[in-house]
Amino acid sequence: MNRLLPTIIIVLLSTVSLLAQQISIKGTVTDEQNTPVPFASTALYNLDSALVTGTVSDETGSFTINTTPGSYYLKVTFLAYQEKTIGNLSLSADVNLGNIVLQSSPQLLNEVEVVAQKSSMELQLDKRVFNVGQDLSNAGGSASDVLSNIPSVSVDVDGSVSLRGSENVRILIDGKPSGLILRSPDALKNLQGNMIERVEVITNPSSRYDAAGEVGIINIVLKKNKANGINGTFTLTGGIPALYGGSYSINVRQKNINFFSSYGASYRSTKGYSRSYQDFPTSDTSYTQNGDLRSKELSHNITGGLDYYINDFNTLTGSLQYNWSDGVNNSKLTYNDFQNGQLFNTVIRTDREEEDEENIEGSINYRKTFEQKGREFTLDYKYIKSVDAEHSNYLQQSTEGTSIIQRGDNDSREKNWLIQSDYIHPIGNSGKIESGLKTTTRVVDNDYALENQDNDGEWTSLPAFNNNMVYTERIHAGYVMAGNKFGKVSAQAGLRGEYSDIKTELTETNDINHREYFNLFPSVNLGYEFTPDRTFQLSYSYRINRPEFRDLLPFSNFTDSRVFFVGNPNLNPEYTHAYETSYLLNWEGGSILSSLYYRARKGVIQRINELNSDGTTFIIPVNLATQDAYGFEFNLSLTPTKWWQVNTNANLYRAITEGKYQDETLYSDTYTMNGRVMSKLTFQKAFEFQASFNYNAPRITTQGKQRSSYSLDLAASRDILKGKGTLTANVRDLLNTRLRRSITDIPEYYSSSTSQRRGRQFAITFTYRLNRVKDKERKANGDNGGDMMED
């Protein structure tokens, strides 16, 4: 059935396409210097001046409009250029208008009023694009804050990112793996949100993308402008609790050279807490744990690079990124031990952890285009080197008079190499064939050591907690993909092959686990355009989820001496069949995107609680089960008036998980949802107010449940300095309710816990634009796509 369903869909939609007669109008919008003009509005009118359809040019200035035979005229507009009208278009077949040159008109800036913004979400054949700059609550925040405001994406209190309820999502930066993410998703807090231009969510990736990630890919695209002259954006942020930061993003374009650079620095101090109750019914013992957490961190991110336009067909880009951070985490855990309900002992355990992180990334990209429109070859090389050093000092004292002094070191050193080539060859008017090769190598050397101080002050090693793991991962991949448009039907199919060579070695115990396997990953994406405002899509892909490095580590933290989150070096990958159907409806003043999806997973990795005879609990990941997940996702964007915008989304799903662990059957059947509602008001063009509410419903697990959580964010902004500056004030988690709450309920053990790593945050951000005003900047970034009118 899994193989038959995509075939039936292709046949049905191909039959429907024969009923529609369509022609295409193509062209390229450039300025007087023959530089492409991206995001120019192209509107097609019939002879009685009624708008028929339209689109915006892409980053190369190219556009394609599909319509039916007839007589038309075309208007091309873009901020700061004179309007261009092309008349007498009597069309009976496809036509290419060639270069359409726009003349500069600086005076036009005073004649243009933006009356509606393009939706912050754009639906493409295989992904959704979110223009995050419109969300005021992102100002002054981190990349984690930006992702937490993306529909279907959740970021928990520990910084872990999930998409549609699953943490098995692959996160990329500028389309490539980054050392920031490879170490830990929590590292996203060190990337300033002001440096992000847009976020791409790919829920059912095509074969051109890596097959990793059960629920898809999140691609964070950093700001990089290519406009002529000197352009830039500068920000300063201050907040309570202590939050100080600044960033800049600047580019200098002269003829065939474009220099770009960005830098962001932030200092933040946060407070958190944890509360838990652990009960062991068979022994009539229990204990409570109260934790107080304090963290301070200073982080820096700097990027510099150069685009060299060798000629009209060859471009060479080089860039270097350097990230480093220094942090101190202090925790105090208080355990109250009970026997038959009577308190008999109190233990206080403190931990001071110093953490230093450093990440260097260098990349070179070569891009070649051809006279044939759409034909392109790219070659990429990337090198990553990362260091993450953690040093902890532990002190534990009890009312019984015992005292324990310990120290732990967790040093991780990592290197990555990536080489990738891609080729696109157009076929006919709208078809193309794509192919590519990719090879990656990742080597991680993680050394963990725990020592105990005796009464004489001597340090002795604890062998049960010491080990050095060397993780080597080599993945070689190739793909081929073809797509075309037949009238109103768009079809794309591909096949990707990946050979995986993965080895984990525990050097202290000489325990080696070496795995080699080859998989084929097909993908199919289909689209049907009923009208320019109504689109239907179907997709299928086969996915793999390889265990994350941290899921393989035997030990990495000893802060809590009673509950240990440990890894499992023997984990196997998960496999997923993913199906999805989507429907997009646009109308003047709003849009709806609804999706139905189904995921069939095997070898599902879940964390299991194991009890030891000494009362400690080990939480370990295992390949536990199979899972069937069904979901419905709904996104609504409304602009009731030109001063009010409403965006809401909801993801409702059911997940059935079943498996066995140590002869025990584990089963869960959960119905749950998460959603977000955002409302933004604009007053007299220069003042904006925004409120957003997030909610995550309870979720049943195989050993308990995750309880609900919700939060409210508020923000306001005011344009100053004639649109070149903006002041933004926001408060994240106004009600201080963004918590993690969970229950574990299994034979012989019950646990209830609540934790918060970061509380309510107030922030004020000032943004200044060099040689850019706000409306022009929005247009250059792809907002307001064609939704402009003259006074």
Automatic annotation (TrEMBL):
InterPro entries: Beta-barrel_TonB_sf, CarboxyPept-like_regulatory, OMP_b-brl_3, Plug_dom, Plug_dom_sf. It holds the Pfam family Plug. It comes from the Bacteria. Residues 368-768 form the Outer membrane protein beta-barrel domain. One of its GO terms (cellular component) is cell outer membrane. The keyword Aminoacyl-tRNA synthetase does not apply. It is found in: Cell outer membrane. Residues 140-211 form the TonB-dependent receptor plug domain. Keywords: Cell outer membrane, Membrane, Receptor. SUPFAM superfamilies: Carboxypeptidase regulatory domain-like, Porins. The keyword Nucleotide-binding does not apply. This is TonB-dependent receptor. The lineage of its organism: Bacteria, Pseudomonadati, Bacteroidota, Cytophagia, Cytophagales.
